[in-house]
Amino acid sequence: MNVAILGFGVVGSGVAEVISQNREHIKENSNVSLKVTKILDIRDFPESEFAPLLTKNFDDILSDDSIDIVCETMGGVNPAFTFVSECLKKGKHVVSSNKELVATRGFELLEIARENNVNFLFEASVGGGIPIIRPLSRCLAGNNVNEVAGILNGTSNFILTKMIVDGMSFEDALKLAQNKGYAEKDPTADVEGFDALRKICILASLCFGTHVYPDGIYTEGISKITLEDVAYAESYDAVIKLIARAKKISDDRITVMVTPCLVKNESMLSGVSGVFNACLVRGDMTGDVLMYGKGAGKLATASAVVGDIIDCASNDKERKFFGWAQEKKDFVASYLENETAFYVRATDTDKNAIEEAFGKVKYLSRENQPEKEIAFVTPVMKESEFGNKLSQLSINLISTIRISDY
Ligand code: HSE
User: Fold this and answer.
1) Residue 323 has pLDDT above 90, yes or no
2) What proportion of the chain, given as a percentage, has pLDDT over 90?
């Protein structure tokens, strides 16, 4: 079966490599014979063994009836959306690793795929090489999922791990992540939580059956986390992680947010270090399930793309029942309805005032703690209540971080 690749970057070139290297193995195991016949990119790759397959003209792929499956690894929404929708309308299956495309235009593309009786699959869009989308939509389909949460950005997890384990500053750890090629071209998406946001929107749409768009979702990154916060977390027997989560708060409402959290050391998520990702699913039948592995990287991500290609190729005439409904008004509740405990670090306040506002709190300490500095963990309360209490307190706030409950 002939495959075309749109975008010969890190993931796209990985897909060509995986298919070429594992062709025989794929044939033996899955009984499908895959061949990359065309690759679209505006750049030239004269040194590449795949150079003869390259074209700069999308129509060469669209109008080629011998191509059954198109793999979109360009990234970004435009022109990816146009190319993907055109291919689906032409009766070609499309597989994509593009989280921004799926998070913002996924519902429309799934509809176009359904209308044209082809597949639009995107296992690689969340968690790189970790199987997440298919297990969630198939293996866990007998559950009501109450919550999905994860460490979904490898770069920010690598930075936090360097801060926690090696005492490195945020800036130095970011530089190291960039040198190692983990960060996106613009690291803002990694460190400010937008990459994790796109991924949790895809997972929330899948788990709760309604498209959740990234716009308006409360998102905090890790750029304000300091080594002092890391030290206080350690005294609480916890580590700081960037957690993306979506939680059912009633039958027809969920909360979705991305924020740093203090994660207790006994949690399954606390040991997820470096560039590794993990996705925790709370099913009503399974309890907590954790999917763990490499969330980024050329071959790991390409492996997930090729898995989707094989799925399309092995049931060529059969469309997967897979997708979700259009956005519903008020389905995503304000993050202020979320309930959580908070870590607070501040100066210019005192214990009496703190306890009057929050009741019983747990005080934390660190080495070289300035006399004026105070850090504590509040009881669990609604975000709105926490905001009200803080605004009534005379305090010079340095940082607040949520406490995770898993
Ligand atoms: N920059 C992303 C990460 C790559 O660090 O997780 C995978 O989406």
Assistant:
1) no
2) 92
Domains and CATH numbers, the chain: 2-128+298-314 (3.40.50.720), 134-294 (3.30.360.10), 338-403 (3.30.70.120)
* Cα 374 to averaged position of ligand 1 atoms, centre (Å): 35
Task: Using CB atoms within 10 Å of the CB of residue 60, give its burial: 0 to 12 exposed, 13 to 18 middle, 19+ buried.
Answer: middle
When pLDDT is cut at 50, 70 and 90, the band that residue 317 belongs to is confident
152 CA to centre of ligand 1 in angstroms: 8
- 155 CB near ligand 1 (under 6 Å): yes
Band (209; pLDDT cuts 50, 70, 90): very high
Q: Which atom of ligand 1 is nearest to the CA of 177?
A: 5
Pick from 16-20, 155-159, 174-178: least confident: 174-178
Cα gap 364→370, rounded to integer Å: 13
**Range 204-211 average pLDDT:** 96
Helix-helix angle 10-30:298-314, to 10 degrees = 50
Q: Are 213 and 103 in contact (CB under 8 A)?
A: yes
Question: Residue 183 CA: which ligand 1 atom is closest?
Answer: 1
Does 283 score more than 80 pLDDT? yes
CA dist 138 and 75 (Å) reads: 26
**Average of per-residue pLDDT across 360-382:** 97
pTM: 0.96
CA 1 – ligand 1 centroid, Å? 30
Kindly state if the Cβ of 276 falls inside 6 Å of ligand 1: no
Residue identified by tokens 């498209």 is 211
Q: Is the CB of 125 under 6 A from ligand 1?
A: no
- Could you tell me which of 303, 44, 48, 10 has the C-alpha nearest to residue 180? 10
The predicted structure's pLDDT at residue 319: 75
Tell me, using a 6 A CB cutoff, whether residue 195 lines ligand 1: yes
Distance 184 CA to ligand 1 centre (A): 7
Query: 377 by DSSP, 3-state: which?
Result: strand
- CA-based nearest residue to 7, from 92, 98, 89, 73: 73
> Which amino acids are annotated catalytic?
199
User: Do 343 and 403 touch, CB atoms closer than 8 A?
Assistant: yes
